[in-house]
Amino acid sequence: MERIKKHSYKRDAILACLRGTRTHPAAEWIYDQLKPQIPDLSLGTVYRNLAGFRADGTIVSVGTVNGNERYDANTVPHAHFICRHCGSIIDLEDIPLTLPAVQCGAITGCQISYTGVCNRCAENKK
Q: d(Cα 89, Cα 40) in Å, to the nearest integer?
């Protein structure tokens, strides 16, 4: 039996915060953004809600960058570029992601990440 979630303004705020940015934030960033408006918000609440959103497919995890799991509210298949220097994550939406037919099972998703040095970091090194 599926558990029914009660409406929660904290959950709504966490999801709105994540949907309102393209920075692919970590839980701590979301917490820092919301804490001034929601003084009784805990970091544990942010983590629990992100885990729930991830489990139900509302968000995706981009992976761990510089020791922090990073999240994306854009669940449409797309690739990412991750800067090894500053840790920024940039959406690459122009790269076609088609799911091939395979004999080992049914593919339900795909994540592709490229790593390198972003233009901003490359310019700062000059």
A: 30
Contacts of 81 (CB under 8 A, 6+ apart): 89, 90, 92, 113, 114, 115, 116, 118
Q: Residue type for 35, please?
A: K
pLDDT tens-place string over residues 60-110: 999 999 999 999 999 988 899 999 999 999 999 888 777 677 778 877 777
Tokens representing residue 106 in the block: 């049914």
pTM equals 0.84
Q: Which residues, including other chains, have CB under 8 Å from residue 118's CB and lie 6 or more apart?
A: 81, 83, 85, 86, 88, 90
Q: What are phi and psi of 36, to 5 degrees?
A: -60, -35
- Which is nearest to 94 in space by CA: 109, 115, 79, 82? 79
How many other CB atoms sit within 10 Å of the CB of residue 65? Answer: 20
